[in-house]
Write a structure and sequence with these properties.
The protein is mostly beta strands. It has no helices and 7 strands. Pfam families: F5_F8_type_C.
Length: 116
């Protein structure tokens, strides 16, 4: 059986909070599975969003594609409500002068590894 992308709205995942929204590029674009759509922010810092899976999932691989992001901090929660978050990943991203930033994070035996 192949891996399933659990971070898609088609799998029941929802964006339940976003600190910025644009009607042409809403936060729901984060999880629509379409590489042509995206979430855009106001440019104010920091920006946050919360994705709710509605069931416990094991994240083995996470890919973040962005532009002009200085730092990335990912927290996780195992609560049914969006509370009690704990840090999972935190890193500074390389400035790419308007080029797409690709960050791939792979979890190996309970610890995160960065893959370029």
């Amino acid at each position: 059986m192949g891996k399933v992308d659990l971070c898609l709205s088609s799998e029941g995942t929802e964006v339940i909070l976003a600190t910025s929204s644009d009607e042409k590029h809403p936060p729901e674009n984060i999880i629509d599975g379409n590489p042509e759509t995206f979430w855009t922010t106001t440019g104010m810092f920091p920006q946050e969003f919360i994705i709710c899976f509605h069931k416990h999932v094991r994240i083995e691989r996470l890919v973040i594609q962005s532009y002009f992001v200085r730092a990335l901090k990912i927290e996780k929660s195992t609560s049914k409500e969006p509370v009690d978050f704990e840090q999972w990943v935190e890193r500074d991203l390389v400035h790419t002068e308007g080029q797409l930033q690709n960050e791939e994070i792979v979890e190996i035996q309970g610890r995160e590894e960065q893959v370029k």
